[in-house]
Amino acid sequence: MINNAHIKKLLTKPTELLIKKMEESVQRLSPIKDPSFRRNVKYTLRDYIIGILDVLRYNISWNNYSGNMNGNTLRKKHSEWVNLGVYEDVYEKSFHEYMKTIRKNEELKYQSVDSTFIEDKNNSKESSYNRIYKRRKGESSKGIKINTIVTTNGIPLSVNVKPGNEYDSPILPELLDNIIIDCNTKKYEKHNRYKQYFFGDSGYDSKNNHNKLTKMGYVPIIKQNRRNIKNKKLIRKMNNTQKQLYKKRIIVENYHSWIKKFLKIQSFYEKTIKSYTGLLLLGISVIINRRIISNKK
What is the DSSP letter of 163? Predict the structure, then answer.
């Protein structure tokens, strides 16, 4: 029974579409296929999904959840679904449905990568200190980093979460290897209209990354990391065309602002990165399903 007014507000068309996908994923991935084997069924599958979405959007702590069921009950169900791979499955289904609503070549033409730091509020053993991000002067922040490759319109193609002290550059090959779809980058390598550009800031500038991107068929436009470059002849400057194209990288910054609107993602309150990643993928799925509904209008 839905009593909370803000939960009723939560149940928009995109959310209903997402709930349907989650129900299908849980039923397919759950080891218990026959509902008659379930005991003490107090809440429906839909109740759990709505509860977790409610925590994701409006709450910070599971224990402080004030919905129709105990927050600890929700947390246990969330952990169960994390282990089953429900959130990964829903993200993949949502992404593939989204790609059917747009022109694939245009969506994949400009891809951008970036990371964002998430402060640890629960002193997790899996987070770490980063001297670049300061809580206050002279004090490093402890947290994690979300690393994401997004499409032209800011939809994540690949995402992972790492401890806060890991550098961006070594993480890029893993992100590229885990892109959710075959972008056919090599196929369009010499096609002026559909060749794919890859944007990154100076944190991703390395010879290995340039070589991998070029080998895959991308046109890499990555800002040069000029730290420790003493020979001015080695300084690489962008031409006017590259400068104009590079401005499109702002979309990955926009994506970070969209995903941080979910209070559960805004800070790291979970004990494990795995649990947080499940919530992150759920938040991404919410964004994708909003786009699906918007594109179908």
Answer: E
- Are the C-beta atoms of 149 and 179 separated by less than 8 Å? yes
Compute the distance between CA of residue 136 and CA of residue 127 in angstroms, rounded to an integer.
18
What whole-number distance in Å separates Cα of residue 165 and Cα of residue 97?
Answer: 35
Q: How far is residue 79 from each of residues 3, 194, 269, measured CA to CA in Å? A: 25, 41, 14
The pTM of the full predicted model, rounded to 2 decimals, is 0.91
Encode pLDDT of 223-260 as tens digits: 887 666 666 767 778 789 999 999 999 999 999 999 99
Cα 130 to Cα 141: distance, rounded to the nearest angstrom: 6
Assigned token pair, 161: 């979460």
Amino acid identity at 240: N
Which residues are bridge partners to 148 per DSSP? 114, 159
Indicate the DSSP class of residue 154. Answer: S
Residue 64 burial (CB < 10 Å; 0-12/13-18/19+)?
A: exposed
Burial 275-294 (b: 16+ CB within 10 A, else e): bbbbbbbbbbbbbbbbbbee
To the question of domain 104-270 being in CATH 3.40.390, the answer is no
Q: Count the neighbouring beta carbons within 10 Å of the beta carbon of residue 182.
A: 9
Q: How far is CA 62 from the centre of its chain?
A: 21
Distance CA 284, CA 263 (A): 13
Q: What is the pLDDT at residue 78?
A: 96
Angstrom distance (rounded) from CA 149 to CA 159: 7
Instruction: List the one residue out of 12, 9, 21, 10 whose CA is nearest residue 282.
Output: 21
Q: Report which of 95, 112, 99, 54 is spatially closest to residue 262, judged by C-alpha positions.
A: 54
The tokens describing 191, both together, are 């096609």
Name the residue ranges covered by the structural domains of the chain.
104-270
Q: In sequence order, which residues have a C-beta less than 8 Å from that of residue 181 and are 6 or more positions away?
A: 95, 96, 99, 108, 157
